[in-house]
């Protein structure tokens, strides 16, 4: 006889969801960013596609795409997906003035932008604890199925 499965705590569910999104982002970065590098490799070093601000937005996009797909797969609605996606870009965009003024360089933008991305994602999750720590995403999925019928 098997023991009944204990439900996960909200904190564990929240942490696992955060980790799953990060894994999806890393996979996307590893698969999609090299395609960008390959596509732009033949362009001159001073081409607009090689600017640090452009590169950071491309890098964020390679992470947003699989993260958003994972969230939708998990049953999240479009609004939380859009909020999380915006949080992922916001850290980089907030640093652009520092880049443009020469306060930070391209490496600083990438490092600080990724750190801010993770912090802003966590903030977005904390703003909707029921969405990420509970089982609200299952309710979204059930609602979407009901609408489709």
Structure description:
With 149 residues, the protein is mainly α. The chain has a domain at 54-149. The chain is 78% helix and 0% strand. The protein has helices at 10-40, 52-73, 78-100, 106-127, 129-133, 136-148. Helix 1 (10-40) crosses helix 2, helix 2 (52-73) packs antiparallel against helix 3 (78-100) and helix 3 (78-100) runs antiparallel to helix 4. The longest helix has 31 residues, at 10-40. The chain is elongated and about 60 Å long.
Keywords:
149 residues; mainly alpha; 6 helices; 0% strand; elongated
Topology (SSEs and partners):
Layout: H1 10-40, H2 52-73, H3 78-100, H4 106-127, H5 129-133, H6 136-148
Helix pairs in contact: 1-2, 2-3, 3-4
Distance between the termini: 38 Å
Mean pLDDT: 88
Order of helices and strands: HHHHHH
User: What is the number of strand segments?
Assistant: 0
Whole-number radius of gyration?
A: 18 Å
Give the biggest beta sheet: none
Proportion of strand residues = under 5%
Structural class by sheet pairing and helices? mainly alpha
Low-confidence stretches: none
Helix content: over 70%
Overall body shape: elongated
Number of helices: 6
Task: Produce a short descriptive summary.
This protein is mostly helical.
């Amino acid at each position: 006889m098997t023991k009944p499965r204990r439900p996960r705590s909200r904190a564990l569910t929240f942490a696992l969801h955060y980790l799953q999104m990060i894994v999806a982002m890393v996979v996307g970065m590893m698969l999609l960013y090299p395609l960008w590098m390959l596509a732009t490799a033949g362009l001159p070093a001073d081409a607009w596609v090689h600017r640090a601000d452009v590169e950071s937005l491309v890098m964020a996009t390679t992470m947003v795409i699989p993260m958003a797909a994972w969230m939708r797969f998990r049953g999240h609605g479009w609004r939380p997906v859009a909020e999380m996606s915006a949080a992922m870009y916001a850290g980089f965009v907030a640093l652009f003035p520092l880049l443009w003024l020469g306060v930070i360089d391209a490496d600083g933008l990438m490092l600080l932008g990724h750190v801010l991305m993770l912090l802003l994602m966590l903030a977005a999750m904390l703003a909707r604890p029921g969405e990420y720590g509970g089982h609200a995403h299952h309710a979204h999925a059930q609602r979407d199925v009901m609408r489709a019928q």
